[in-house]
Design goal:
By secondary structure, the protein is of the alpha/beta class. Helices cover 35% and strands 13% of the residues. The relative contact order is 0.12.
């Protein structure tokens, strides 16, 4: 009876939070960007060397086989004529995608994206629709022995994912910090590859955007597999952990690490139906601890992944400050993340 009372109190609290924000949350509601990028129709109508081009919705392995049969001249032709589609084709060669996305960024002519085309940037995916989506590689992904993917939470997009005000806290900052700590042989991808919620309104409280993001994340990891990249570790922050929870059984991740998580839309690690090891951590001053761990009428994300009953392995986070400090240099959480990323933990 006590447990039922606590659950109902949490449901009422969740409802109050949502009701209190609904007035502005509806105005900030985000439309999930899905499907192939602009230019897909022109791509489908084209050919190269007498060969029809694979549908942008084709499976990554089919895409990989298609590019394996092209010479360098044909590949350059596709990059030149269809940069936005070629750059986002999961299963296409990595170097080809980097070059295609550089051209696609430049073609937008938008100042907010200009830095993504600077020398040295390795942009693995770029979609300018909506607030923009991007995936950026840190390290040598083609030759890496270990690969990690950062899946961020709310308020991240293509223009802000590497904001100077977010060192070690934004998606690119987290990826850069982990790659530096792990050293050679480890590549890290900052994957802002879905439409994230803005603020803490209804979008952050329900699973609509996470469900769309989970489909994109599963396809993205399948694309890595199709080009021979090692099975990744997923590091999932805040609302990104909801995305990872929904995608878990559809990825080949070796480990799924959640931190600052409001829940994974599962009652336990076993309910994720994944062969990956599941890890969870939360700092003592992380405000996410105040979010009720319930799921009621589609609102809320379920059990607390850091609770013993959930069954995840624990990540030490006692010295983490706030909601975004998990990758700050010198923290126990970053040391643990580094060991997991390098496969040093059994």
């Amino acid at each position: 009876m006590r447990r039922f009372g606590r659950t109902m109190a949490a449901v009422v609290l969740a409802g109050g939070v949502v009701a209190g924000t609904a007035g502005w949350a509806s105005g900030d509601a985000q439309q999930a960007v899905t499907g192939p990028p602009p230019g897909a129709a022109a791509w489908r109508a084209d050919s190269v060397g007498g060969r029809a081009l694979p549908d942008p919705a084709a499976g990554p392995r089919e895409v990989a086989r298609f590019f394996a049969g092209l010479d360098e001249s044909a590949r350059r032709e596709l990059v030149r004529n269809h940069p936005l589609v070629a750059g986002n084709l999961d299963g296409a060669p990595l170097a080809l995608r980097y070059e295609a996305n550089r051209l696609a960024v430049l073609a937008t002519g938008e100042a907010r994206y200009a830095s993504l085309a600077l020398p040295g940037r390795q942009i693995l995916a770029f979609d300018p629709r909506g607030r923009g989506q991007v995936a950026e590689v840190f390290g040598d992904l083609e030759h890496a022995a270990h690969v990690s993917v950062i899946v961020p939470g709310s308020d991240n997009d293509a223009a802000s994912h590497d904001a100077p005000r977010k060192p070690a806290t934004g998606p690119a900052g987290m990826a850069r910090a982990l790659e530096a700590a792990a050293g050679g042989g480890t590549a890290v991808i900052a994957w802002t590859g879905y439409t994230t919620p803005v603020g803490v309104g209804l979008d952050a409280a329900d699973g609509r955007l996470a469900q769309a993001g989970a489909v994109r994340l599963a396809r993205f990891t399948a694309g890595l597999d199709a080009v021979g990249v090692p099975d990744p570790v997923l590091f999932c922050h805040s609302y990104g952990s909801v995305v990872c929870g929904l995608a878990a059984r559809h990825t080949d991740a070796t480990d799924i690490v959640v931190f600052g998580s409001p829940g994974m839309r599962a009652d336990s690690a076993a309910d994720l139906r994944t062969g990956a090891r599941v890890w969870a951590g939360r700092g003592p001053s992380d405000w996410i601890a105040n979010v009720p761990n319930v799921e009621f009428a589609g609102i809320g994300h379920g059990a607390d992944p850091t609770s013993p009953a959930f069954g995840a392995r624990r990540v030490p986070a006692g010295d983490v400050q706030g909601h975004t400090g998990y990758f700050v240099h010198g923290t126990r959480s970053l040391a643990a993340f580094t060991a997991i990323a390098k496969g040093d933990v059994r």
